[in-house]
Amino acid sequence: MPASVATARGGVGVSSAAGGGRPTLPQRGLWMPTTRGYGKQHEMKYCASPKNERFSRHVTRSALFLLHNCSRSTAMARLEMSGQFQKALLDSSRDYLTRTFYNASMKRRIPSRVECLLSSDPINNGWLKPRRWEYFTSLESACVQPEYKLPIRTRADCKAEQYEITGSPLSPSDVPAEAVMIGDTDKVSPWWQEFPKRWTIVLLCFFSFLLCNMDRVNMSIAILPMSTEFNWNPATVGLIQSSFFWGYLLTQILGGIWADRFGGKVVLGFGVVWWSVATVLTPIAAKIGLPFLLVMRAFMGIGEGVAMPAMNNILSKWIPVSERSRSLALVYSGMYLGSVTGLALSPLLISRFGWPSVFYAFGSLGSIWFALWLSKAHSSPDDDPELSKAEKRHILGGSTLKEPVTSIPWRLILSKAPVWALIISHFCHNWGTFILLTWMPTYYNQVLKFNLTESGLLCVLPWLTMAVFANIGGWIADTLVQRGVSITNVRKIMQSIGFLGPALFLTLLSKVRTPAMAVLCMACSQGSDAFSQSGLYSNHQDIGPRYAGVLLGLSNTAGVLAGVFGTAATGYILQKGSWDDVFKVSVVLYIVGTVVWNVFSTGEKVLE
Q1: What is the pLDDT of residues 275-319, one digit of tens each?
Q2: DSSP assignment of 233-293
Q3: Which residues of 277-305 are buried (b: 16+ CB within 10 A; e: fewer)?
Q4: Contact 175, 13 (CB under 8 A)
Q5: What DSSP string describes 162-211?
Q6: Residue 140: what pLDDT?
Q7: Contact 35, 43 (CB under 8 A)
Q8: 105-147 pLDDT per residue, tens
Q9: How confident is the model over 18-29, as pLDDT tens digits?
Q10: Which of 119, 131, 402, 578 has the CA that lies 20 to 30 A from 245?
Q11: Whole-number average pLDDT of the chain
Q12: How far is CA 525 from CA 45, 133, 423, 491, 522, in A?
C-alpha cells in the first residue's frame, strides 16, 4: 500500500526561468491525477491555500499518483488549477498537458507553503493513517507507483504558509515525460463491476439462508389449516414437524464431506434446488397421503442439511480472516430474517390464496437464486477468471489454495481437543437456543397470558434481535482482529458473551413479574446469543479451513441433536415441574459450554 509525503520549494507545475526567457518546470513538485465518481476520467490537481488559510484538506478518489522529484525542502508553492484528461496520455502527453496549462492565467504572485500527506488503500478502498516523510528510509521508498488500476481513495492533508512564486504559460517542451496516465480513460466502469467478488459470494450465501428458513418455517403456519382439512390429531402434527429432522441429520456430515471434496458451489447449489423442489411438491404429497408428505419433508431436510457445511467451505476459501466474523454473521442473519419473512408472509398468502400457495411461492424463489448462483459464484478464487489480481492477493494473503480434499483424516480430526470443544459447545448452545425458539409461543401464552396473535407477533422479536446483534458482534470481532488481538482471544470473548449473556437473562427471567420485562429478557437473551456467530460458528474455519465443511457437519450434528432432545425434554420437565426448571437446565449447560470453550478452544490452525 503506497503512502508518501512530499514538500518542495518553488512552483509546482510551473516556475519562471532565471533572467527571463521561456519558463521551465521546477525541479521539485507534486503531480496528482485524480478521479471523480466510479469512472476513470482523471484530473490533474495541485492545491494551494490563500494567505490566511492555515490548514486545508482535499479528499479525492484516485487511480494513480506520481511524485516527481520529491524533496524535503521546507517551502512549497501552491497553485490551483485542473484539466480533465479525456483520453490516455501516451506519446502526446507533452502537447496535451501544455495545452491544458496554457489556458490558465499564471502571471501572478501567490504566497503559500504546502506540505502534503498522502495515503491510499487500493484493495479495500478504505482510509489509512498517513505516513510522514521521516518514516521513509529513502526517496525511492516514498515515491512508488502502485500497480493497481482499480479506483482507490487518496487523502491529502495540506498545511499552507507564505511563499512567493510567479508563473507563465508553458510550452510543449516544458512538460515532464513522466506525467502520463496509465489505463484507458475513455471507458467508465459501472459500480457493480467494482463490487468485491468475495462479497458477492457472501450476499448470495445470505439469500440462500434467507430462502432456507423461509421454506422451513412456512410449515409451522400452514400446518394449522392443513390439520383441519386432513383431520390430523396433535400426534400426527408432531410427527410431520419432526420428519424434517430425519433428513436434516442425515446430510450434516455428508454435506461437509461433499463440499470439501467437490467444492461449495456445487453442493450448495444442489441443496437449494433440492429443497426448493421438495417445497413445491409438498402440497401434492399432502393430498396423496400422509406417508408421502413425511417422505417429502425428510427430502427437504436432506437439501437443507448440506447448506451450512457447503457455505462454511466456500467462505473459508473466499474470505480472509480479517473479514471472517462479519461475513459469517451476515450470512447467518439471513436465517433469522428468513424466519421473520416466512412468519410474516405465510399468513397473508394463506388468507388470500390458500395454504398451498405458501409452498408454491416460496419454493419457486429458489430457481431465481440458482440462476444467479450459476453465473456469479465459484468454489474458490482460483476458479474465477474475472477476479482481479489485487483482490486475489487480499484474499489469499500470500498463501496458496490447496487441492480439494480426497480423503478425510477422521482419526486426526477426532484426536484434537479444539474439535471436541466445538462439538460440546455447539450442543450446549443449541439446547438453550432451540428451547427458546420452539417453546416461546407457549411460554407467552401460558405464563404471560398473551393471546395467540400477540404471541405470534412477539415470536418475531427474537429473530430480529439476533439478526441485528449477530452483525454487530461480527464487526466487533473483526475490529479486534485488525487491531492485533489474537484470534483465539477474540473467539473466546465473543463465545463467552454468547453463553453467559443468555444464562444471565434466563436467570433474571424467573425473577421478573411483568410481561414487558419478560419479553425484554427474552430479547436480550437471544441478542447476546447471536454473538456466538463470531465465536464457535467462526472457529471451524480457524482451526481447519481445508476441512471446514466436515467440522461444521460434525458440530452441527451435535447441535441438531441438542435441539431434538432439548425440545422433547422440555415437555417432560413441564409435566413434572415448572418453567423455572426448564431455564435452570439451560443455564447449567450454558455454563458448562463456557468452561469447555475457554479451556480447550483455540483460534490457531490445528488441521492442515
Answers
A1: 999 999 999 999 999 999 999 999 999 999 999 999 988 998 898
A2: -HHHHHHHHHHHHHHHHHHHHHHHHHHHHH-HHHHHHHHHHHHHHHHHHHHHHHHH-HHHH
A3: bbbbbbbebbeeeeeebbebbbbbbbbbb
A4: no
A5: ----------GGGS-TT----S-SS----HHHHS-HHHHHHHHHHHHHHH
A6: 44
A7: yes
A8: 444 444 444 444 444 444 444 444 444 444 444 444 444 444 4
A9: 444 444 444 444
A10: 578
A11: 74
A12: 54, 51, 22, 19, 5
- The HSE-up count of residue 467 (CA atoms within 13 Å, CB side) is 17
- Residues 31 and 34: their CA atoms lie apart, in Å, by 10
Place of cell 459450554: 593
d(CA 328, CA 201): 11
Helix, strand, coil: what percent of the chain each, to 5? 60, 10, 30
pLDDT digits (tens, 9 = 90+) for 317-338: 898 888 888 898 899 999 989 9
Instruction: Count how many residues are written for the chain.
Output: 608
- Please report the DSSP string for 164-177 in residue order: --------GGGS-T
Q: What is the mean pLDDT of residues 395-420?
A: 80
Burial 494-519 (b: 16+ CB within 10 A, else e): bbbbbbbbbbbbbbbbbeeeeeeebb
How is residue 569 annotated by DSSP?
H
Amino acid at 440: M
